[in-house]
Design a protein that fits this description.
The protein is mainly α. 69% of the residues lie in helices and 1% in strands. It has 14 helices and two strands. A hairpin with a 7-residue loop joins strand 1 and strand 2. The N terminus is likely disordered.
Amino acid sequence: MTTTETDEVVKEPPAPETPSDLRERERMRRRSARRRGGGWWPFLFLAPWFIGLFGLTIYPMLDSLYLSFTDFDLLTSPKWIGTENYSTMFNKDPVFWDSVHATLLYVAVSVPLKLGLALGVAILLNRPLKGIGLYRAAFYLPSLLGGAVAVAIVWRQVFGGDGLFNDFLGWFGIKGQDWISSPDTSIYTLVLLAVWQFGTPMVIFLAGLKQLPKDVYEAAAIDGAGTLTRFFRITLPLLTPIVFFNVILQIIDAFKTFTPAYVVSNGTGGPLNSTMLYSLYLYKKGFADLQMGYASALAWVLFLVIAGFTAINFIASRYWVHYDD
């Protein structure tokens, strides 16, 4: 009988790690984590954006918020006066309320007309017509010019006492007037200028119309639905997200309008403050009267008003904006 002896192998316990071994292991762990997360390279590429965000947006906003509670004329150090600027604005400044009235009227009239015209033209251009690209470019051109000073100067000449608009009315035996100098009509010349520049919302509407399903229209045509029925029952409900997007953009843009009012009124906001849009009044207080603290308070009120209108639109959108789900 042969007996096989088995030698047991006794494993020796590992040697304790030295402090240098622990540091090396931690260094390797951190290096591995950096490789998985990209290390510091993402932050390097994002650095210009962060510098712009904090240096050109957040810091100036906070600084203007501080200045809104001071008396600051750009020449001397700011003097803290608390809420006096806001109190003066709402209780002792009639021009402020004139600018609020002019701006609200401008927004309430120009935005619906501009969006309505943009949607109508987008529907007409959403057809396979010959040379359709040329038509689209022609309708978009006024928006490409934007709020240029040259356009506002031309507009002032068109609606002046001896302007082209009065010449056009003369063909029909209608005697015109100086539309710019009349407080009853001057604001509406700015509204016409805003409506004329409908190209940007038109392009957005056109992009939305391209995405609407064709089979729904075909089914509605088979069921005998007319043009108006298809528009109100199919096109408009499916297009409500695009309408909502355009409404937000155009309201914000209308509240910030400055150049046309400045050029058309020669920087005065006249006649009788009828074209004294809010941004123009803010500019006058800050850079003409050197009341930078008061102008900062005006700017923050405008910011809150725009934020309020935007929030109201988002809340109301639950009841009229229809998404796919």
